[in-house]
What we know:
By secondary structure, this protein is of the alpha+beta class. It contains 5 helices and 6 strands, in the order E-H-E-E-E-H-H-E-H-E-H.
Amino acid sequence: MGSIYIMSIRPRYANAILDYTKKFELRRLDGLEPISEGSVIVIYVSGSIQSIVGEFIAGRVYIGSPEKIWSLVSSGDYGITEEAWKYIEGSRKAMAVEVLNPRRYPLSVKLESIRRILPGWNPPHSYSELREGDPFYELILKPVRSLIVTA
């Protein structure tokens, strides 16, 4: 199994990723290990949705000062808004993860359903790595990902 991460994303940004209009996801790196290229990023939609809805593959990963990251992604047609700058501004280090092959799962899994199986489970504030043997990976994610039909 390659690296798999779960990332909390606000509803409108998650939809933009899954609709192929947002091409980079920006993150503050304060205290977090960077995501590596080729990793699978599972999308947990926060806010009123509170569900696991899909995933994407991490393409290029840029790491640097917020100013450097912003200069790399703000000028292209990447679906990045001014709000993204406000999110990374002020952090010591920031990361831009290229979104490749976004896929919506055939069914979404609501937080309340996850907690029926794993009482007390909470999504990460930003993102966290999932490891084989992790109850969330084994009991929730593995069965959902098995429903993806690959061409």
